[in-house]
Amino acid sequence: MEKKDKRYQAYLRILKEELVPAMGCTEPIALAYCAAKAREILGCMPDSVLVEASGNIIKNVKSVVVPNTNGLKGMEAAAAAGIVAGEADRALEVIAGVTEGQKEEISRFLKAGKIQVRPMDTEEVLDMAVTLWKGGEEARVQISRSHTNIVLIEKDGEALYREKCADKVLRAAEDADNDGGQGAVGCKPEAGAKGGNREEADRALLNMEAIYDFAETVDPDDVREVIGRQIALNTAISEEGLKGNYGANIGRVLLHTYGNDIKNRAKAAAAAGSDARMSGCEMPVVINSGSGNQGMTVSLPVIEYAKELGCPEEKLYRALVLSNLTAIHQKSGIGRLSAYCGAVSAGCAAGCGIAYLQGGDLEAVNHTLVNALAIVSGIICDGAKPSCAAKIASSVDAGILGYAMYREGQQFYGGDGIISKGVEKTIGNVGRLGKDGMKETDKEIIRIMTGC
Predict the structure, then answer these.
(1) Taking every annotated instance into account, which residue ranges of this chain make up the domain Serine dehydratase-like alpha subunit (predicted)?
(2) Structure confidence at residue 451 (pLDDT)
(3) How high is the pLDDT of residue 197?
């Protein structure tokens, strides 16, 4: 693929947009970011707080530890951390700089009972709003569709910024009458702001043939910063997960039970990173498709295989470009959040990266992906919590098995369940399953988790 090809430039942009650092599970961190931004707009500490969120946000925040809070969990903890100690300009690292004194202040703020949480009436899967009051003053910030995409900023009922597409959710008719449907007068994205309104690269340009071509031909210097950061940060938290005592310690259980061969080390590396992250480890990771678990799953097994095989750095970079874009391609059809476990997309994509490291061509990569998806596409997402690490291990195992099947001349065929002939059709089927077919499953999961 030539550098002047529009796909080449789009794929570079996609990697830079998706592979960003984040500290803590992205849903509570997004909520902390939303709260920190609202606190910035209010200009002082609030007397009362209302947090509204879609079911998937509630699901993914409910059971995970919010970092830098002395082990606190849940919606109220995430919002309190953002309000008390958040630095809004740091986006998904919004609470990375919390001091010991601020941790105590977060606890006191929570105990004061100032925060009310309620479900949000929204059609968006990823949607949240934080409203703060102090005396007669009010500030409201809403994030929708992606974890740092601010669609509304209000102060005392006046829109300081409103993304045009947010009109369908908030005051659509009023805005259409007042400004011809162009959004509030004078409302502009904050220049250079992280998470402000932005036009993203077109994910519809992704397909497996072009992804493989890009991975083969990309100038390593064009991806060195983003991929190098992923290797460094994700390896560090994986090592911490294996050393420390986090969650159910799935990474250590795998090594102690099944040994130290490369297949098991690959699974354990990814699981250990999740062990640490889901249990409040205060180390950043590079995410994929809005998820730290997916960012670790798509990278750490490939890194382990590259070490085992003695691959040069450039080969590893190309394999990680392939695995990351393959995961993003799958998730583009599913959406950021759903009842479909994102670790499945990432683990199957890691299998493709592993296949590439071992000399696999486009045919091998495509068969690896289809085989792996046939095995684990039924895993549900029931929120962020320690058991994510075990789901990650299962998904990576499916990716490894998918390539082993191909090498043995074995495969699943079109018509076998949700598998269709051709990798793109199968990816489309999985997207349909995750986005549309599992909507009712998602609602039932949320009802079970919230006791409704």
Answers:
(1) 146-446
(2) 83
(3) 45
